[in-house]
Amino acid sequence: MGVTDTTMDKLVSLSKRRGFVFPSSEIYGGINACWDYGPLGVKLKNKIKRFWWHAMTQLRDDVEGLDAAILMHPRVWEASGHVAAFSDPLVDCKKCKQRHRADEIEGPRCPNCGGELTDPRQFNLMFKTFMGPVEDEASVIYLRPETAQGIYVNFDNVRQSSRQKVPFGIAQIGKAFRNEITPGNFIFRTLEFEQMEMQFFVRPGTDETWFEYWREQRMQWYGQLGLKPERLRFHPHGQDELAHYAKAAFDIQYEFPFGWKELEGIHNRTNFDLTRHQEFSAKKLEYFDEETKERYLPYIIETSAGCDRTLLTCLVDGYDEETIEGETRFVMRLSPKIAPVTAGIFPLVKRDGMPETAHGIVDMLRKRFDVFYDESGAIGRRYRRQDEAGTPFCLTVDSQTREDETVTVRERDPMTQTRVKIADLTRLLEEATAF
Ligand code: ATP
Questions:
Q1: What is the predicted pLDDT for the residue at 6?
Q2: Would 331 be classed as within a structural domain?
Q3: CA terminus-to-terminus distance, the chain
Q4: Nearest-CA residue for atom 4 of ligand 1
Q5: C-beta 88 within 6 A of ligand 1
Q6: Whose C-alpha lies nearest to ligand 1, atom 13?
Q7: pLDDT for 124
Q8: Secondary structure of 77-113 in the HEC alphabet?
Q9: Could you tell me which residues are beta bridge partners of residue 416?
Q10: Distance 306 CA to ligand 1 centre (A)
Q11: pLDDT confidence of 325, banded at 50, 70, 90?
Q12: For ligand 1, is residue 309 a contact (CB within 6 Å)?
């Protein structure tokens, strides 16, 4: 079995062919760095979100959920520092017109053509739009560039309504928008993306312990997602990399075909956010600790992951090619917990009552699992199609089924075939997909 060269080109083409990810507005020629999730992609994305939500909220007593609006009061972005500081210095090449982030190039000339560059200009990454029909400065609002601020401004609402005491966290999954200057690498960096963020509010002085705790928790989560541990690592931020609000930060990085890149950021944001919102909103956000009789602004430990980036990572990590009896097999080794389709269900042939029995199994399993019925083509071809889609199990009804109420269960990775009672299928899939 040989792991192969996982090039992004192959992945982009497989994603389109199989319906994971399509270029957005493709019939119009597409739009830069915008992508749509197809039938398999949306299932995979929903399962990744569910897996995150389950780990971050359902399994815990100390994290509550939230779903805040994308549009927020414009003052939020002044308080957060985004209006003043959320910008990348940009340079344009005077010759080939290519645009670069000033902090990403070395030397004074264009890395593309060697041409002369303009002086750096500041470029704000927030998408601006207008609220109401009048397009004046007074009605300017922004599409949120991160979900975190929706959590900070709801700190008191969530705390009071859920009767949580510090330390506790608030988790949220939602869209964010950034007018990225250098988007690319497929869905790695896009203009519109989904974040899975959790902000954990703690007593000052306990922040370093909680920071360590969450760093470990989040790394474990990627392991549970099935990613190869040798392709994951921590990257601590040096003093020069730290954001203005952060006391400490670690990225969880993955080794993509284009290098080690950030998957998630874990930040000790101190009491910067609540201090600023208290100041800008003139509302008291201090927390009164009943036990110690102290009053303070909680520190925040943030875990900020990208859903699209996690999905890309699962595709990159799972993609494999192997040669079997002279033929290349493309296989997407996704964990059964998140595979878009859990089982393909096939009648060996289209007669002798096999399709009817197979449909019966589909009806039994579809209430709990994503299953897919396929009766067309040779059985080997049907297996291959499911391999590419990442389906961990294929269940085939054959002539023996009528005799002993069993089907052939073929597993994607070892390609083993075993006979399993129809009555035991639910339990088999339940065990494989449980989290
Ligand atoms: P970068 O330096 O790569 O632009 P960042 O440090 O600005 O990223 P954060 O603000 O920490 O990123 O965002 C948290 C997470 O949100 C990232 O780890 C990533 O998974 C996701 N994310 C951020 N920007 C994008 C984007 N443009 N496209 C897709 N996902 C993104």
A1: 55
A2: no
A3: 29
A4: 189
A5: no
A6: 304
A7: 83
A8: HHHCCHHHHCEEEEEEECCCCCEEEHHHCCCCECCCC
A9: none
A10: 7
A11: confident
A12: yes
| pLDDT digit string, tens, across residues 279-323 | 999 999 999 999 889 999 999 999 999 999 999 999 999 999 999
Q: What is the mean pLDDT of residues 52-60?
A: 98
Q: Is 145 in the pocket of ligand 1 (CB under 6 A)?
A: no
3-state secondary structure at position 127: coil
Instruction: Give the global pTM.
Output: 0.92
Please state the rounded mean pLDDT for residues 391-406: 98
Which amino acid residue places its CA nearest to atom 28 of ligand 1? 189
Are both 111 and 139 inside the same structural domain? no
pLDDT tens, 260-274? 999 999 999 999 999
Residue nearest (by alpha carbon) to ligand 1 atom 26: 189
For the chain, what is the mean pLDDT?
94
CATH number of the domain that residue 21 is part of:
3.30.930.10
Q: How far is residue 237's CA from residue 136's CA, in Å, rounded to a whole number? A: 40
Together in a domain, 378 and 426: yes
CB-ligand 1 contact for 144 (6 Å cutoff): no
Question: Does residue 116 form part of some domain?
Answer: yes
313 C-alpha vs ligand 1 centroid, how far in Å?
A: 14
Whether residue 158 is found in the same domain as residue 260: yes
Distance of CA 137 from the midpoint of ligand 1 (Å): 28
Mean pLDDT (whole number) for 22-44: 96
- 306 Cβ below 6 A of ligand 1: yes
The alpha carbon dihedral of 302, 150, 64, 187 has a sign of negative
Q: Which two tokens stand for residue 195?
A: 């974040």
- What residues make up the domain containing 102? 87-124
| In the predicted structure, residue 1 carries a pLDDT above the cut 50 | no
User: Are residues 347 and 420 both part of a single domain?
Assistant: yes
pLDDT tens-place string over residues 338-384: 999 999 999 999 999 999 999 999 999 999 999 999 999 999 999 99
Whether residue 330 lies inside any domain: the answer is no
Contacts of 62 (CB under 8 A, 6+ apart): 164, 167, 168, 169
Protein residue with its CA nearest to atom 16 in ligand 1: 306
Determine the residue of 185, 237, 262 to mutate for testing ligand 1's pocket, defined as the one with the most ligand atoms within 8 A of the Cβ atom. Answer: 262
> Ligand 1 pocket, 264 CB below 6 A?
yes
Q: Find the mean pLDDT for residues 425-435.
A: 97
Does the pLDDT value for residue 392 go beyond 50? Answer: yes
Residue 380 lies in a domain: yes
For ligand 1, atom 20, which residue shows the shortest CA distance? 306
Same domain flag for 388 and 399: yes
Question: Domain tally for the chain?
Answer: 3
For residues 242 and 360, state if they share a domain: no
Can you list the pairs that 135-143 forms with residues at least 24 positions away whose Cβ atoms lie under 8 Å? 140/74, 141/71, 141/72, 141/74, 142/71, 142/72, 142/74, 142/77, 142/82, 143/70, 143/71, 143/176, 143/177
